[in-house]
């Protein structure tokens, strides 16, 4: 049995108490799944990452990244709204970032003009400038 990791839990409740959770995953990876959720209080559509603690290679690093990201508030940085934890899983509720990864977005376009590149790169640079201003280096820009 895995113990609690002292994840910042600002609600004191379970995900099911605050969110309607779509049972069908919209994504999955080596460490867990992503599902669409709807906040019961206001109907806001978000996503929830659910990760098995046993499959995480570096839990301390993940917790540090969550704590850092929870303090960020910028239009081009994915916002974390809630975190939850039980004995076996970590749950992160965050803004739904439509469009997927940047490379996939660019590859899906039949043409990608200089203006398109300018718009995308300007948004990326605004986000990087914001996080650098907070003393954070991003090592996984997608």
From TrEMBL:
Q: Which UniProt keywords apply?
A: ATP-binding, Calcium, Kinase, Metal-binding, Nucleotide-binding, Repeat, Serine/threonine-protein kinase, Transferase
Q: According to its UniProt record, which cofactors does this protein need?
A: Mg(2+)
Gene3D superfamilies reported for this sequence: Transferase(Phosphotransferase) domain 1 (1.10.510.10)
Task: State the InterPro entries in the record.
Answer: Aur-like, Kinase-like_dom_sf, Prot_kinase_dom, Protein_kinase_ATP_BS
Mind telling me where the Glycyl lysine isopeptide (Lys-Gly) (interchain with G-Cter in SUMO2) cross-link is?
142
Q: What is its EC number?
A: 2.7.11.1
Is-annotated flag, keyword Repeat? yes
Name the reaction it catalyses: L-seryl-[protein] + ATP = O-phospho-L-seryl-[protein] + ADP + H(+); L-threonyl-[protein] + ATP = O-phospho-L-threonyl-[protein] + ADP + H(+)
Q: Where is the catalytic site?
A: 140
Residues bound to ATP are 49
Ranges where the Protein kinase domain occurs: 20-142
Record-linked SUPFAM superfamilies: Protein kinase-like (PK-like) (SSF56112)
Give any GO molecular function from the UniProt entry. protein serine/threonine kinase activity
- What top-tier enzyme class does this entry carry? transferase
**Highest taxon listed in the record's lineage:** Eukaryota
Family, similarity comment: Belongs to the protein kinase superfamily. Ser/Thr protein kinase family. CDPK subfamily.
**Record protein name field:** non-specific serine/threonine protein kinase
């Amino acid at each position: 049995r895995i113990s609690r990791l002292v994840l910042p839990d600002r609600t004191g409740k379970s995900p099911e108490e605050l969110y309607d959770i779509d049972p069908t995953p919209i994504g999955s990876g080596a460490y867990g799944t992503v599902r669409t959720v709807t906040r019961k209080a206001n109907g806001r559509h978000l996503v929830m990452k659910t990760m098995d603690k046993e499959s995480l290679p570096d839990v301390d690093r993940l917790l540090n990244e969550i704590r850092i990201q929870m303090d960020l508030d910028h239009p081009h940085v994915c916002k974390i709204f809630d975190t939850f934890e039980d004995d076996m899983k970590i749950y992160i509720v965050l803004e739904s970032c439509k469009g997927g990864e940047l490379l996939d977005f660019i590859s899906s376009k039949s043409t990608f003009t200089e203006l398109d590149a300018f718009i995308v790169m300007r948004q990326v640079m605004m986000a990087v400038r914001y996080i650098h201003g907070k003393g954070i280096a991003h090592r996984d820009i997608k």
